[in-house]
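Handout, page 2. Input:
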Amino acid sequence: MEDPLFLPLEKRFAHEGYHLYIVGGTVRDLLLNRPFSDRDYATDATPEEEKAFLKEASYTFERFGSVKLSFKDQEIDITTLRKEAGYQDFRHPTKVIFVKTPAEDYARRDFTINALYLTVEGQVLDYCGGQDDIMNKVIRFVGDPEIRVQEDPLRILRAERFAASLSFTIEPKSQAAIDRYRYLIGRLSPAKIKEEERKGWKRIK
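Output:
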């Protein structure tokens, strides 16, 4: 497993006393030996702390802990480890609490296969069976599927897109939640649906 952009950035964070992890779909694709273009990293540094040594980054969404960095001609998303609550617009949390460890962060993520963290030493941190689900080709929500779908109905589209693109199966409880709350897709903005269609999601008739 290798991401050539990670090491120089990790050294930069470590020099300032912070941790940096490869996270989410990037780890999933590395484990599956799939090519990837999206790079997602997570850190215990807050955006305010990053401003001291990552001045070239974009801090437009810093209130959500999200920083975008153009590094060696690649776009990288760096997100502060956090807890979330309240999704009044079905997308963005109304409350964000920055935390210090992946063990506190993982529960807010959508699927077990996307709740993995890779350290600079090459260790995969897995708090919810994501590696087993990758091995067994299963899509499973983190935590209670009904809560995760109601927080953000876009996760329905994402589950179906991942299942199709990876040739995985959505596990029964997750599928039941998707079927029960599919109507919530109608409350998503057309732009979000279009974005998922562009990534490969196909509407179920």
